[in-house]
Amino acid sequence: MSYSPKSWVECELKDVFDIVTGKTPSKKHPEYFGGNIPFVKPGDLDKEIFISSSEDSLTEIGFNNAPFLPKNTILISCIGNLGKKAILSCDGSCNQQINAILPNKYISPKYVYYYIDKIKHWMNTNSSATTVTILNKNTFSQAPFLLPSLNEQKRIVEKIEKEFENIDKGIEYLSRTKEQIKQYRQSVLKSAYTNHNKYIKIEDLCEVVRGGSPRPAGDTRFYNGNIPFLKVADLTKNNEKYINDYTYTIKEAGLKKTRLVQKNTLLISNSGATLGIPKICTFTTTFNDGIAAFLKLDEESLSFHYYYWLSKTTELRNINQGAAQPNLNTNLLKIQKIPDVSKEKQKQIVQEIEKRFKIADEIEKIVDDNLEKAKQLKQSILKKAFEGRLVPQDPTDEPASKLLERIKQERKINDRK
Question: CATH number of the domain at 13-145, please?
Answer without folding.
Answer: 3.90.220.20
